[in-house]
Amino acid sequence: MQRFFGRGTPEPEEFVRRGLGTGVIVSPDGYIVTNNHVVRDASDVSVVLSDSRTYSAKVVGTDEKTDVAVLKVEASDLMPAELGDSDALSVGEWVLAIGSPFGLSQTVTAGIISATGRANVGIADYEDFIQTDAAINPGNSGGPLVNLEGKVIGINTAIATRTGGYQGIGFAIPAKMVRQIMQSIVKEGKVVRGWLGVSIQNLNEGLSRSFQFEGKSGVLVGDVVPDGPADRAGVKAGDIITRLDGREVTDMNQLRNTVAAIKPGTKVSLEVFREGQTRTVSVAVGELEGSAVAAAPNGGATNDLGLTVQSLTPEIAEQLGLRADERGVVVTRVQPASPAETAGLMTGDVIVAVGDKQISNERDFQAALAHADLAKGVRLRCKTDGTLRFVFLKR
Fold first, then answer.
1. What residues are annotated to the active site?
2. Per-residue pLDDT reduced to its tens digit, 24-56
3. CA-CA distance, 155 to 71, in Å (whole number)?
4. Residue 335 has pLDDT above 90, yes or no
5. Nearest-5° angle of CA 16, CA 19, CA 25?
6. Largest CA distance in the chain
7. Which of 59, 63, 8, 71 is nearest to 36 (CA)?
8. pTM over 0.85
9. DSSP 86
10. Separation in Å, CA 261 to CA 54, 154, 251, 359
11. For residues 232 and 197, what is the distance between their CA atoms, to the nearest angstrom?
12. Is the distance from CB of 71 to CB of 18 less than 8 angstroms?
């Protein structure tokens, strides 16, 4: 995976570094959207228009989580592009990519929409990418992906490549997300995101079966932040969120992006599945803030699941950033291609429950596994980087 805008070979410190990217004028008063990585760490930003006029640009704000940046130039007689409806895109629809690949300004290439809703690409924290095979190369960063009506339906941001050049797979941030980020930066001076106060994960067949859930979609709540919006509304760990304001919840990425775009303070309706019943709760969306990350230790006892664990001691808990009185077992090793790795367990995870049984130490853990039918599988609850989640372990 490669961003389109690179710094190239490092120069000696006495040289001035210059980079090239593309942007889109989106308002007659001079607002421009581009990628965050195009302007990141830049001390000066210059904008050259298609008629060769050159302006000094002010960086109004950036959002690393989506790789969007908003610039402003003081200029007249600007002709802004119109942001289109990226939700209305269809796979196979023709699009044009515009930019300055390798410094060749105003280059236009054609292709189709290869896919929509691409996530887990590893480019940004919030991903809902449009995938296209329109030829895009280094220098296209921040440039528009345009439909045949001339409307901007995405901002080009990255390519999948092994050579550094075009190989038929490019990604663009959808216009809907760009519009929301831009408006938040311009109006609020920062990006404001909605927050439910839950950690969520996608379901698999084993987890669904362990909760007696027969639905085809939904998102599992692994943990609930104490006194957060969801906690105050009565949402519990183990709930499966199936709808938000009547709209089907398909996976964790869709739910996360949808909630992030909701204005804090807005009340939303969640449909959740719990203990064989579906119920509806009303949640007042909060505002997202930062999160913490913990480290991982090494240590002790093994079993035939490819899993090595040891009792969680106060000393290890401190290393992991946990409370000294927390109990469970910490995963110290996971064998490659083992049932534990297949289940998604990782070194540093703290297992706190096997099935519905809370565990305090390694002895509890081994006893609980001995009573479990591992051929059918067992649900574990574990804490990863300080956040609780569910894992389905099957031999």
1. 37, 67, 141
2. 999 999 999 999 999 987 888 999 998 889 999
3. 14
4. no
5. 130
6. 75
7. 63
8. no
9. G
10. 34, 17, 16, 38
11. 10
12. no
